[in-house]
Amino acid sequence: MTGRDVPGLVERARVGDPRAVARLISLVESGADALPEVAAALAPHAGHAEVVGLTGSPGVGKSTTTNELVRAYRARGRRVGVLAVDPSSPFSGGAILGDRVRMQDHATDPGVYIRSMSSRGHLGGLAAATPQAVRVLDGAGCDVILVETVGVGQAEVAVASLADTTLVLLAPGMGDAIQAVKAGILEIADVFVVNKADRDGADATYRDIQGMIGLGERAPGQWRPQVVRAVAARGEGIEDVLAAVDKHRGWLADTGELRARRVRRAAAEVEAIALGTLRERLGSVRHGTALESLAEKVADGELDPYAAADRLLAAL
Ligand SMILES: Nc1nc2c(ncn2[C@@H]2O[C@H](COP(=O)(O)OP(=O)(O)O)[C@@H](O)[C@H]2O)c(=O)[nH]1
Ligand SMILES: [Mg+2]
Known about the structure:
- The chain is an alpha/beta fold.
- Helix content is 54%, strand content 13%.
- It folds into three domains: 1-45, no CATH class; 46-255, P-loop containing nucleotide triphosphate hydrolases (Rossmann fold), CATH 3.40.50; 267-315, no CATH class.
- The protein has a seven-stranded parallel beta sheet with strand order 3-2-4-1-5-6-7, with helices on both faces.
- Helix 1 crosses helix 2 (18-30).
- Magnesium ion binds next to helix 4 and helix 5.
């Protein structure tokens, strides 16, 4: 492709040029052909940022909390990146537009980089683009990267596998505590934030979730999810959220779990890339002869499918 000076873009991003950061994220969003080059240029600069995921039902207060966390981290002098990921939205409207407006608080702060990502226009899908976008922000010198995902099920799990620390937001009266357990969210949450604590029922939600955590079995030395109350709309409880995140961070570092998580994450990423490549190659075989002729043999009972698969892989 012409005019794509990836190493140059990475150099500019590293000194805080927001246009270079934007360009790099666009490159990783736009698809597979640019990804290897960008990833290679970023690799020496990765691994510095603390990645914090925020997830929970729509309307629970993720963006409001993210906005307040940005403010709090900036007050500590840290550079912050925000990725607002909305896998449910094929268009960039609705919630994401609202997020953009809210995030205008930080629009002129050079220490903050904010990007919304929807599922629109991702060849490799959000699941492939988001970790690369995190790498871009990491390489660009962000100390903290907040990843907000509107989540039900899969998306939440995806955020958890991306983040060092995962915050799950709940709000009173949404039956969230119960839903959380059903959806397996208890396993991914490092910190629960009972937001909208100004509303009736917040204490009950707090008690519910504490009760659920109490029921969970935990080996000695394992992390016990923290539960924090907040009124994000008024900036209340944000210091407590930060304290819980820091505590988790300390635990990650002390136990070696930070590296273990990152290795697991990298393994999943490498595996996904390898499988994608493999699928592409198999696809190209399909139009040729190898898969087709093997398939004919299997269909005619001349070969069993396992032997055929072995032959197919050997031919690659
Ligand atoms: N009462 C109350 N409303 C809140 C609180 N935090 C956020 N909200 C409101 O809840 C709505 C949804 O918040 P938003 O941050 O966009 O939720 P998201 O969809 O999870 O990102 C907005 O109208 C917020 O102003 C809170 O602590 N208390
Ligand atoms: Mg939001």
